[in-house]
Each structure stands twice: as C-alpha cells, then as structure tokens.
Amino acid sequence: MDKWGSLVVLLGILLVFFLEVKGTTLVEDGDPISQQEKDRVLELPGQFFNVSFAHYAGYVTVDEEAGRALFYWFFEAVDDPSSKPLVLWLNGGPGCSSIAYGEAEEIGPFHIKPDGRTLYLNPYSWNQEANILFVDSPVGVGFSYAHNTEDLLNNGDRRTAEDSLNFLKNWFKRFPQYKGRDFYITGESYAGHYVPQLAHAIVRYQSSTGKNDISLKGYMVGNALTDDFYDHLGVFQFMWSTGLISDQTYKLLNVFCDFQSFVHTSDQCDSVLELAEKELGNIDEYSIYTATCQISNATFSSRLHRKMHSFGRISEQYDPCTEKHSTIYFNLPEVQEALHVNPAFAPPHWETCSDMVSEHWKDSPRSILPIYHELIKLGLRIWMFSGDTDAVIPVTSTRYNIDALGLPPVTPWRAWYVDGQVGGWSQGYKGLTFVTVRGAGHEVPLHRPKQALVLFKAFLSGSTMPSSPPHFQLVDSI
Questions:
Q1: Measuring CA to CA, which residue among 224, 240, 211 is closest to residue 368?
Q2: Strands, E assignment, 76-213
Q3: What is the arithmetic mean of pLDDT over 235-260?
Q4: Angstrom distance (rounded) from CA 48 to CA 343
Q5: Alpha carbon distance 311, 303 (integer Å)
Q6: Smallest Cα–Cα separation from 97: which of 124, 57, 61, 127?
Q7: How confident is the model over 1-23, as pLDDT tens digits?
C-alpha cells in the first residue's frame, strides 16, 4: 500500500472514531428513525422476561461547542403509546441519577434484584399510563458527560435548566412523533428546583420564539425542596415532633440554620446538624420507620449533613439496599454496552450520586415560590405530593411552602383510599393540588408503589384522588 493509500485508511479510522465520540451531535440533523433504531435497547443483561414496549437509551448533545451531552433512557407506554402523554422524570441531588433512582427503584419498569445482576419487572411502573423519559442531569451525573472536565465543576440551577431545555429540543428532533404530544414534568427532592425551573424555561422559550413544539401541560413534584426558609422550618419541626431530636437541638437548629441555604450552609449550622445527626442515631432519615441497609453500613453513616445536600437515596418488598444493587448493575460492562454508553466518556466508576457535582454546585436560588406564582397564573396543572415519613424534606415543609403561596382552598382536606384503606390525604387549592401518601418516605414510589401509581393516574387525568371509604358490615356476636 502506498503512502496515499495509508493516509486514506488513517483518515477513515479517525473519521470512524470521531463519529463514535461525537455521533450524537452529528446525527441530530440526520434521519431520526435511523437514530432511534441505533438507540433502541433490544435486551438487557439479567432480563429473563419479555416486555411488550420498546425502550431506547443514548445521548443527546445539549451544547455542541462545549461538548456537553445528557444520557437518557426512554420507555414507551405498555399499551397504545401513540395515545399516551409524554412524561419526563428528574431526580435531584444536586448530582443524583434519574436512572439510578427514578428508573431502577421507583417508577421505571426494570428494577434490580439483590444480586445486582438480575432484573425484575415493576408491576407499578408509570409507563403503564404514559411514555416515560428519564434523564441524568446535569453533566457529570450518571452517564452524562462533558468534554471539558471543568464543566463538571461549574454546574448550577441556571445552566441545568438551559441544558435540560436544549436536551428536550434535540430529543424531539430525534423523536419527532412526540412533538405536540401532551407533556408533563415530574420529579422529587432537589428536582423541586429542576422541575419548575425547566417548566419556566419552556414557557419563556416558547413565548420568545412563538414555537409550540413542547406542549407543556403541567408538572408534579414530590417531597420537593422549594424554599430554603420554609423547608428548614418544616424539617426541624418534623424531627422534633416525631421525637428524633432534643428540645435544645431543635432550638439551636432554628437559630443557626433556618435562614441558611440548603446547598451552602454556614459552619455554625453544620455543627448543629452534626449534633442532630448524633441524636437521630442509626436511622434512615429518608424513611424514619423502615430498616436501614446493613450492607457496608459505614458507607451510610455520618450522612445527615450530606443528605441535606444530596437528596435522593434509599428500595421487590421494601429493600433498603437498592442503591447498592444499582451500583453493581450499572457498572457491568455488558449493561453499559446494552444501554449504548459511550466507552470514551463512561465514568471509571458509575455512582448513584456525584459528590463532585454536589460539592461544586454554583447557583441555587433560596426560593422557587416566585416561579410557582408565575406558572399558576398560566393555568398549568401543578401538583405537589409528600410521603409523610420523610425527615429530609418532610410533609411539614411542603405545607409551609403551600401556605406561603396564599392560595385559597377550593376543596376540603380529606382522606383518599386504595383498596379500602387510607392512602393519604389531599386538598385542592386554586391553581395547585396537594396530596400526602401515608407511610411513604422521601421516595414515594419506592415505599408505596401502588399508591404512587394511583396518584400518577389522578394527576394525568386532572381528577381528584379516589374517595371510597370502606363499608364495614356488622357481624352478629357469637
């Protein structure tokens, strides 16, 4: 082979490598059906059952110049996906993976058995009612990446909203059949920032461009960080009223932490949080009445302070070690290959949450309530729900936030039911619906999956929660 032939071969190899690394950028303007098929997941390791729905995974570029791309996993609805809405689910952190939590232990169809290698089908998956899209956001979370590692140190609320909007615009190019489909955003914890901020970004984008390809109808958030002051107030009140901390520590928390940022606290507040952690003992603050994980328990100790920053942990019958199972599964090379993870940008060790992202978080507004005021006026369907055994962002915090909105109630406070038992309580306000889920922790679909699916159905239909109390029958005494 002459030198020119060798040069052509070398250029060909370089082009193939470039297409492999930058493929998600270059194909955005290509044939969307072809790219969909490239992203289609045919079978997963440890999946010993068949499913009737299609699912897809891969990357969508959100900033071509900077080389930022977000990883997604999309599940079509089980039945008649063309008639069902599109729902985006986001987990928080900041720095926690929506694949790790939302998909693998909450609302997704594929959950992981304790061996960390075998899957089972979640009977309460939300793709029974909608087409569900999970996204690891921002870059540095899960399999999402940036070419420049400095980008991983500069995440914040503002850029996360911008990148998420760009993700949606480019994802709809790849899946044009979903343009104009009723679209909802859901999430939990620090997604109490992400979800309203993304909804706000969509509204502003469409208002400024006149485009309406993202047919946003509403959003729903659970145990959501919303306002630093009211959230702190509710957390400390909940811990004290449930007997988790002493009177003295309760008073100190209110003095030194009430007016602090959840993401950037002072040294004085940190010291009191450490004192509260010692008083709490070895419990799971995300679910105060359930068992803690006993696998390498030291990994989970001394983390109240960390959890106040990294919302989104805990999961066949309630398993507190699900996070461990996910860490095994998503680090398997064959799993990453099946999900089309690019080996050039795969993390050396996949983690459920990124300390690098959370510890270097930039902007985090003290309150999201102004966004609520703006979006409520637009008539979007807005729901807030709360598991009532969570001590991280408890039901008391959410109630303080709703009270601060000053919305007039339109329906009375009442119990709602599943299988004849109280599933929780609910109240409707002008522009917002609030629902509690009895016995659920921070991750409501993890602890009360059936109730969470009932909640999701009601949200999508815009109906009230089911009110059918049990009918007791008198039995003659013997």
A1: 224
A2: 86-90, 110-112, 119-121, 131-136, 145-146, 182-188
A3: 96
A4: 26
A5: 11
A6: 57
A7: 444 444 444 444 343 334 344 43
Whether 80 contacts 127, CB under 8 Å: no
Instruction: Map residue 71 onto helix, strand or coil.
Output: strand
Instruction: Give dist(CA 257, CA 269) in Å, integer.
Output: 5
Grouping H, G, I as helix, E, B as strand and the rest as coil, residue 75 is strand
pLDDT bracket for residue 194 (50, 70, 90): very high
What single string gives the DSSP state of each residue in 190-229? THHHHHHHHHHHHHHHHHHH----SEEEEEEEES---BHH
390, 397, 426, 447: which is the annotated catalytic residue?
Answer: 390
Residue 305 falls in the annotated catalytic set: no
Query: What CATH architecture applies to the domain 40-226+365-461?
Result: 3-Layer(aba) Sandwich (3.40)
Reply yes or no on whether 442 is catalytic. yes
What would the pLDDT profile of 160-170 be if each residue is shown by its tens digit?
999 999 999 99
For residue 428, list its beta bridge partners. 433
**What residue type is assigned to position 31 of the chain?**
D
Look at 29-43, 60-74, 386-400, 441-455 and tell me which has the smallest mean pLDDT.
Answer: 29-43
Average pLDDT, the chain: 89
Choose, from 111, 232, 442, 447, the residue flagged as catalytic. Answer: 442
CA distance 342 to 345: 6
- Measured in degrees and rounded to the nearest 5, phi and psi for residue 193 equal -90, -50
pLDDT exceeds 90 at position 64: yes
Q: Does 55 participate in catalysis according to the annotation?
A: no
Q: What is the mean pLDDT of residues 65-83?
A: 96
Residue extents of the structural domains in the chain: 40-226+365-461
Q: Which residues of 156-166 are buried (b: 16+ CB within 10 A; e: fewer)?
A: bbebbbbbbbb
Query: One of 189, 358, 364, 397 is an active-site residue; which one?
Result: 189
Strands 414-418 and 182-188: unpaired
* Residue located via tokens 């003290």: 366
**Secondary structure of 253-292 in HEC code, one letter for each residue:** HHHHCCCCCCCCCCHHHHHHHHHHHHHHCCCCCCCCCCCC
Res 285 pLDDT > 50: yes
**Rounded to whole angstroms, how far apart are CA atoms 282 and 406?**
38
